[in-house]
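Write out the 3D structure for:
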Amino acid sequence: MKFEQAIAALRFDPVVPWWLIGALAALCLVAVAVGLFTRARGAIWRFFAFAVLCLWLAGPRVIEETREGLPDIGLLVVDQSASMGVGTRAALAGAARAKIEAAAKDLPDFELRTIIVPEAGSEGTQLFTAIDRAMADIPRARLAGVVAISDGQIHDLPPAGTTPFGEAPLHLLVPARGEEVDRRVRIIAAPGFGIVGKQATIRMTVEDLGTARNGLTMFGAAKLTIRRDGEPPVVENVPIGLEHQIDLMITRGGPTVVELEAEPLEGEVSRANNKAVVEINGVRDRLRVLLVSGEPHAGERTWRRLLKADPAVDLVHFTILRPPEKDDLTPLNELALIAFPVRELFQVKLREFDLIIFDRFQNRGVLPAQYLRNIADYVRGGGALLMSVGPEFVGATSLAPTPLGAVLPARPAPRGGLVNEAFRPNVTALGGRHPVTEGLAEWRGKAGAVQGGDTPWGSWYRRIAPVEIRGETLMDAPDPSGPDGRAPVLLLDHVEQGRVAMLLSDQIWLWSRGHEGGGPQAELLRRIAHWLMKEPELEETALVARVEKGVLGIERRGTEAAPPGAVTVTDPDGRSQTLALAPSRPGRARAALPATAPGVWQVSDGTMRAFAAAGAANPPEFADMRATGTILAPVIRASAGSVHFLDPSGAPALRRTEPGRETSGASWIGLQRRHDHIVSGIATTPLLPTWLALPLMLGLILLAWHQESA
């Protein structure tokens, strides 16, 4: 609504410069003063004549402006961030918004604009950013004030003591009955990775916000419950407000999910931030590998190059260059070769190795039966053994009849154990579902095309025909005498707590040379080694859960061909639901579920369990759950605004106030009258026009001359 107003004002438009008018006025005053001193009769009339002259030269005018008043603008800012969903805040904010918008319609010469502060994710509540965008088309001279309906948790505060709205007041309406209290668990520092076998340290604190006791140990402690991957919980007493350290032993590779939960504080607004979840990924510091090669052969370099290329591997490599039967009685002090440290490797330091590899090793008495038994016990106790066998595995020097043979997944056939013929290794149906060999069949090699046979890989020319086969066959070769016309080439087996892999050919080095296009030798050997060392991503049967971008992803790996069925998902609040798994590729099935609640999610298929950590969707919003006016208090004071706590009765009343007056009261908030306008017309009227000034001056001079001549 526009209104018009006429404003009259006196203005001067001098005919000559002001300094000249001033000089003339000074001369006139001197002349008049002389006349008064000599008591001349016409001095007074001369004074009036000079005054009219100076006034006429100053050009006095009456300026009359016609103004159109502009309505004032107020901003209503409604916070709709995540923390406004706590308790009854959203309902109170909605009622206050409706009341203010209705009251604004009854105010004359006033326009209310409503803006929404949306959820900003990890940036928190960006209230002042939203206000700045809204004020891009609002002149500051028309801004009557800002009314913010918010819980007061603002994360883009202007510098302290500044008034971002000029003279306009900022009023905060908090949807709560008063200042609230809240207890939270805050993680100060937590490692993303931990070394297997070593401790990882979490630094955290329990804080009571909105109370006077935070940080004072004399007020006692809070009970903190520590849960780790479904293990029995551990309860500790943690001093409130002080840093506390939690040491955890990393016992396995892969993610370890730790949940910390503090007991609730009496009267606290929410328990959502009483929990904190930390996920620590267990990794091995250095993988210690012992490689023992028999007599030198073409494939020995392939093993060494593969293991030395990995910076995380500490390799100890020994090659038997001179077997015992070739002893020529040369004195030891004249030999350039070091003695084979049998006792140190296979008795004293055997269990320090993560993986032992025998590459075409022959039983020629270098390792006594007791040491071979130590290796078998090492495997049963959780160790890893990889056997790559060739012709030495058939005959009198074979390791099969030794104590080590008890943990091997196969023995050589008594007749025809050594097969010398060209063949292409093939991934079995089971191998297509096993993480060690899945996807390898699509490897096209350097030639980039299938050259015949079962796979696009280069040929091998020697293999061992096995009997007494145990474990899983992941790769095989054509064999008319074998079952189903196939014979194993790669066997994997679980032996009590340990694992064994056997490669029934010593020809994999041909792939590294690019023979007939080569093959995936590096990837295959890497996967075998990591499976033996129980790396989580290569477990053939596993249930994996992970929360990413608010979605719980579930994957079940298995070697069985039957559909995996369903899993039971338990959310952080203890509610369970059944979720069907859909096959995604051979051996794998997946499902997804929105992970809306922060905390630890548990997934079970009846046999295995998996845990996933879901942090708060908006950490700044949930770091402090209180409704408070203290955070915005400096800005409000600088703008002469006010803080009001809402109750079910609604928002305070709106009033219009003049600049310099009080802007709020116990039950009302004020919006200033800005009196901004535009000038629609100007009229100019001279007070002493020329036609009047000249006769008037002439008449006064004549009157003065007449009086002096009388």
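The longest strand covers residues 199-209.
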